[in-house]
Amino acid sequence: MSLIRITDEVQEALRTKQPVVALESTLISHGLPSPLNIEVALKSEKILRDLNVVPATVAVIDGHLQVGLTHEEIELLGTESDVEKTSFNNLGTTLNRKSLGATTVATTMFAAHKSDIQIFATGGIGGVHRGHDGDVSADLKALSEIPVAVICAGVKSILDIPRTLELLETLGVPVIGYKTNTFPEFWTTGSSLKTKISASSAKEVADLLKTHWRIGLTTGQLVAVPIPEEKSVDQQIVEDAINQSLEKAKASGISGNAITPFLLEKVSEASSNLTLEANIDLILNNVNTAGEVAKQMVN
Ligand code: PSU
Ligand code: MN
Prior knowledge:
- This protein has helices spanning 8-15, 26-31, 36-50, 71-79, 88-96, 105-114, 138-145, 161-170, 202-214, 235-251, 259-270, 274-297, and strands spanning 4-6, 20-23, 54-61, 64-67, 84-86, 101-103, 119-121, 128-129, 132-136, 149-152, 175-178, 197-199, 221-224.
- With 299 residues, it is an alpha/beta fold.
- Strands 1, 2, 3, 4, 5, 6, 7, 10, 11, 12 and 13 form an 11-stranded mixed beta sheet that branches.
- Helix 9 crosses helix 12 and helix 10 crosses helix 11 (259-270).
């Protein structure tokens, strides 16, 4: 039996060259509180279906890396308390033990590529942690090695964004600003950081993605979509909330893969849930953009 299991719907869509967008599950199990997490996951799938794009949410279920989930499986990922946050280092173990696993950007890219899906939408990627140069997300390794485009609102701004951008450049990962020259900063539309590449339409994004791969480059690509202006959180509120949360993380000695979920939760507490609302808005906006890009990829 294959370790990867692709649902019939996704297989059929790929066989008949219909657009497909991969979605991750760590944001369901570890990134958003219940029951909003389930609502966002189901809404994401609906946005894609309304665009005639097939959603393929990825998770580890019953010993399989599964591409395409049922609503019941999404609900399970959103309600179970001990879901494994599954990156490269523990994917084998999670499969072997038949634990329920939520895939990160890294393992979702891997699953997407194994199934021939080129477009993947999420909130924001992992990167270099602030003041913790040794803590670098495996998402960057995945972007350097796996030819899948990640449509996101940039790098989660609890991280060191300038250093993450430098590293992406070193790794040869294109960073394409979607209808912007300013690099989006997750909960805000961004400020001082620039994107060297900007695309003005989904068609232009698709053309850029295709050319990078057609010449034989094999890295992933990042499409950075700013949160809609009217939903962007005030820069100062975000910065204060992040600083308070980083202090809390330090005081409680939290480390490793628990840091990102911890910080996301603390930042929303410190911002009276403004960042939580923005996180939801930006995810749905990214999913919509990914659907538009996926349609252009099959043209
Ligand atoms: N985007 C969100 N919320 C999240 C994540 C992304 O809006 O929770 C997840 C992704 O799965 C990403 C992970 O891969 O956070 C990064 O974790 P780490 O920093 O431990 O690599
Ligand atoms: Mn980490």
